[in-house]
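Researcher: Structure for this, please.
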Amino acid sequence: MKLFRYEGYEVSVSPEALLLKPFKVLWSRDKSKTKDKAMMELSLLYFYCDPRSDYQYITDDDTRLDEVKKALGFAKDWQPDAEIKAAISFYHSFDSNAAKLLRQAAKEIDKAQKVLDNMTPTDYKSIKEHFAAMKIIPELANMIQEAEKALNTEEQFGEAAGSIEKGMFEDGLDEVADWVETRSK
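Model: Predicted structure, token format:
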């Protein structure tokens, strides 16, 4: 999602984001002039949901939420309310296929790692499972790298294609060419 960016050690929220109901609700309910609470909650959304966030390596949602809360200075007993949950769901609805693939591949690598951590090669079956799991790890790592490349390419070129503007006299150029052609006959 391009509505949130992490720049200069802070999350910036584009004005367009505040037009979208789930984000506007968080902004509007903070009645203070500084909007510190709203910015803290919107920052939580970015760090928790955005595939560009440094916290995406934490594949367990509850653990990631706890780490983000701690880093942003939320109270230990703070829990997301219905508005935050709605904003999280809305934020994830903008995930690209590459972001979804990246998240899923990371979860699968974590699962494989847990299998390896809990395995003891005491019998043939365990050894066979151990090596089968080890064989999958490079494939999963390649999947993550490909998903990251796709995500970066999507972000890099997706916005540029949509931001190209027409030149001042570009509209109606075909009509002018037709008019010139009919006059020259």
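Researcher: Any notable elements?
Model: Helices lie at 21-29, 36-49, 61-72, 82-92, 97-118, 124-162, 173-183. Residues 124-162 form the longest helix (39 residues).
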